[in-house]
Amino acid sequence: MAKPGNMAIDGADPRIYDQMEKELNAPADQPPPHTANDGASVATATAASAYNRRDFKIHDPTVTFEQYYYFAQQTRAEEDAQPRTGYDTTIWSLFFPSKSDGGVKRMPAGEKSEGVIAEPGHQRMIVSDEEWTNASRALRTATRGAIFYLITTDILGPFGLPYAFATMGWGPGIALFTVFAALAGYSGFLLWEPFMGLDSYEYPIRSYGDIGYRLYGRWMRHLFNILQSIQLLLNVGLIVISNGEALSQVAKFKLCFVVCCLIWAIVGFLVGQVRTLQKFGWLANAAVWINLICMFITMGGAAHSPPNYAGAASSAGASISGGALITPDANGVFPPVQTSGGIPDTGSFVGSVSGAMQAIFAYGGSMVFPEFMAEMKRPKDFLTAMWAAQAFIYFWYMFYGLFMYGYQGQYTVNPSYLGISNYNIQTAGNVFAMVSAVIAACLYGNIGIKVMYNNVFVELFHAPPLTTRAGKWAWVGIIPVYWAIAFALAAGIPNFSGLTSVVAAFCILHFTYTFPPLLSIGYLVKKMAMREGDGYDPATGQVTRSDAGWVRFKRGFFSRGRWWMNSLNVLYIMGALALSGLGAYSSIMSLKAAFANSTTTSYVCKSPLDG
């Protein structure tokens, strides 16, 4: 799995974990030469411990919730004891993060540090408990300021929000976006709490799927990984198509549209060859400001020039009143810009629900929140960074969406920077948007390929790890295939907003609004079900549970102090599933109508924005 946190700073090499996982997951017929700890465990701080990290695999079904929870408490206590500068405690550290000092401080070695040693007679390498936990500490380098930038960089939603307001109207649009923002902040907390209770230096959480695995089992991990792979693949495709549209505008439609898209697919072939993201730190920070610059340029263009009437067929008005609001009269004069206080007349709820999916798209970064927390020196600080980022996103996205809707009304297109008619301003916005999109493509493509490769090819088909020579060559070969598939999928769908609605309904909505409460329920039930005397004993390696089955579940779910939260989360899940169903139906119907109307795909020379 990729290490997004390393985009913000020059941290430790994330491939350390890849090598250790390879060693720890080696076949059981090659047992390590040592069967007991040679020194006191760092995490347990006991004189003698039955715990030995080498006895377990990364995804080991024999490791219980109680073990994960025990070591997580030890890790949190160690993190709280780490010294922190006064600057790290100020609000300015969020917006102007200092360069990390290289990760969590290593703990002193025991009587004898094995390090990484070769087992006699075997090619397998053995990792000592101390080396494993110290390597885990070294990889945690990100500060809350870095996470703030990563969250705001990761989310690609601002340029679709004006389209959302155009299909929902002022009142419903503001209300829904506010609700989505509040719930996204709540969902971030629901992801943070299980992470804090399950992640440790001994058993680090590295992905969304790891949390699902520890609470519900292997099937949940596979479900998360599959949906995450689909979302990242389609996001890469969306970047290819949106940049293709922007490039076609910059070229004044003199360059064949499919060639414009193909150019960005080729760019992806090249930038995708970077396997680690730790050298892209300044780009991650710059991408936030690049997006803001693009937003300000677009707003200036919308305020001082008419809408881009040539792209009216791709605007929100195409789904309002049968397209009457964007149809020119006999003299070729287009109707004036119009806005609506309530839901516009779209003929059905499909158009408005599709607009709501664009608003949800703004909060698609929750999918990689666990990856961000996994890179933090103090995951406890994630809440501050996440809530600050959500507030930043809410304010600027809302302002931008309402501003653009007020000036362009029904002529708003998705993405909105394509709707500027003045060529000079249009080109400036397009250039900044393309640069920002390339940075996002580096992130999405890298993570997406690693999710697919590590969880499908390595785990199921025993492909060589990416740290090996064969794995590096496999990476080189997979990159063009991955980007080609992303291009083919996105280019074959004739409705850009319909495609973003599909991604939002089937993937983003679940990672942001369905899965967090589901994980929270699983975590709280297991945690609150533990009675006094239950838990993991590091001295004996035994797990004690007073009971099991329905009685234990009932006690955990209806525990005093958290029963209301579990009940609220059940309603939250049901609401999210209902909205997902509506979103899936509306996006499918929108795409069906686009195909029925013989709307062209991207496999043509004429740009969809060229009349």
In summary, what is this structure?
Helix content is 58%, strand content 2%.
Notes on the protein architecture:
With 611 residues, the chain is mostly helical. It has a single domain (146-531, 539-596), classed as Amino acid/polyamine transporter I (Up-down Bundle), CATH 1.20.1740. It contains 19 helices and 4 strands. The protein has a two-stranded antiparallel sheet with strand order 1-2. β1 and β2 (125-127) form a beta hairpin. The longest helix is centred in the last third of the chain and has 39 residues, at 423-461. It starts with 14 loop residues before the first helix and ends in a 15-residue tail after the last helix.
Taken together, the total number of domains comes to 1
Average pLDDT reading: 77
Order of SSEs: HHHEEHHHHHHHHHHHHHHEEHH
Shape: globular
CATH C-level: Mainly Alpha
Point out poorly predicted stretches. 1-17, 27-49, 100-106, 109-127
Strand content: under 5%
How far apart the termini lie comes to 43 Å
CATH architecture: Up-down Bundle
| Order of strands in the sheet with most strands | 1-2
Fraction in helix: 55-70%
> What is the helix tally?
19
Total beta strand runs: 4
| Cα Rg | 25 Å
